Amino acid sequence: MRGTVLAAVAVTAALTLAGCAKDSGAPSGGGTAAGSPCKLAPKPPAAAAGTSGSKTPEKADGSALKVGLAFDIGGRGDASFNDSAAAGVDKAITDLGVKKENVKELSAGPNESEDAKQTRLRQLASDGVNPIIAVGFAYADALKAVAPQFPNTKFAIVDASVEGAPNVTPLVFAEEQGSFLAGVIAAYKTQKCNVAFVGGVETPLIQKFEAGYYQGAKAAAPDIKLDKKYLTPAGDFTGFQDPSKGNAAANGLIDRGADVLYHAAGASGKGVFSAAKAKGVMAIGVDSDQYNQKTVEQERDVIISSMLKRVDVAVFDYLLAVAKNDLAALPKVFDLKVDGVGYSTSGGKIDSELQAVLEGYKAQIIAGQIKVSDKPTS
Question: InterPro entries given for it (predicted)?
Fold first, then answer.
């Protein structure tokens, strides 16, 4: 697994630089970070009113739905990806009238077999659960086998699509767009001009987070140093549920100079936060607003922001579409334009000046003026 400093990420010509000195001070809550801060690229134009992807809330009657959640490893309580999916179902209980007793949740185990995944999905479908949401790309092969066996059951899968299965709806995201904004945040908050990424498992999906983060950091601070560490290689999904590995990886990156760490590592991110707190540096969470997560509240002071991958929005919108019998209304990709990804401001570390910068970059991405890559350059 690599831990070397990466080469610079190419950015759009619209962001060509004429660096100006950074004006932010030491990271609030970080304490000991020191060194020469980055020189920042010119700030983007202010976002025009109405460029956000806000939408009018819709209503439907979901009282007849029997909802199944097949969680990824970690399940409800992972302070990340699965919790966000659960929040979407919880919102459907509140807003659509889905009955709590009609929600069935089952969780995966680390490195389990495909048979185990298929058994879980078959159990839900055989029990009359409809629709069923598979949380995570690891269910793709299992759904390819199971979905045709239950053609009248509606399935959805987060982070993947299943070819040849018309009853499976993909819920996919522009993680690279939200991660771009996380990179901008890191560039504005670092005091060493050195930031890093911790990935749970080295897969194309997690590399989307890395790619966007690096591109955003380089757009905001062209001379910034970038580092990374993946916890496990592709195929070994324990990287999403091993806080000790997250802690060790974060400590290594901090020792090499990074003072802002962004993780896309599921429950392993708890170890990243604890390392950041112990070493007096800062961190950026992922998926949910991790500043408000009970399982990491002891480390919340080091969390600048979280890249919001709105699995909750996608799950709720999917259940709304099922209740309305209108799956065609769902977006093809949950991106910045539809608030499918974004950033949090909890904790007060994103001031109005930085938020204006973030909204400016966000508007340029939505308008297509900035093209965010979903693949690392090296």
Answer: BMP_lipoprotein, Peripla_BP_I, PnrA-like
